[in-house]
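stuck on this one:
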Amino acid sequence: MSDEQPLVLRSDRDGLCTITLNRPDKLNSLTPGVFVALREVLDAVAADDAVHCVVLQGAGRSFCAGHDLAAIANGERAPSRHFEPETVDALERLPQPTIARVHGHCFTGGLELALGCDLIVSTTTARFGDTHGQWGLVPIWGMSVRLPERVGRAMAKQLMFTSRRIDGVEAQRIGLADIAVPEEELDAAVEKLAGEILSNSPGTNRRVKLLIADADDLTRTAAIERERTLPHGVPEDMAARMSRG
């Protein structure tokens, strides 16, 4: 692949924004340059009111094989100390519902990105794994928080203590993937889910996402009481949708 090709691509159609990691020859492994490009796209998408759903995917044979260890060895550095984890945070904070479209490899840093999305749609043959322990590394991008939130503490410990790889079928069984389908059905499954999201009120989806995020820092009672106050207002299209009957 030419060095002139963008490391991250963006395409938009009818309210759906597709973000593509674009290092297919390296299985979309992550470098500081990829994170800079990804952050630029995420910041633009966050401010774009025309985007109502986001799909994150990888070009070529894999979603993302993780951090590019060669880049680490070569001393490549991000613009600031916590730029990479803050980029995963920015993905998680996108106001729109997000879907990770996973095929091929989804290891470590790639898994961190998938966990930063609201929903994960996978092929049955995709391979998931956290390999920090295999390399003597410690997670700093949020894995120790987001993986237990997804699969529970005990299962997260199993996966992290062993660096075990699992396929999409097992990922769906333990709650890591929301949907797992044969590879030839992946595009249709993602399109169907995105279509269902897009048919909903974008204002409702944004507010529901905020309410769920708010609840993480509140007691259950406080979260329920906060919901009743409509802290984020009501969707702009509420009256129009209600009038349809």
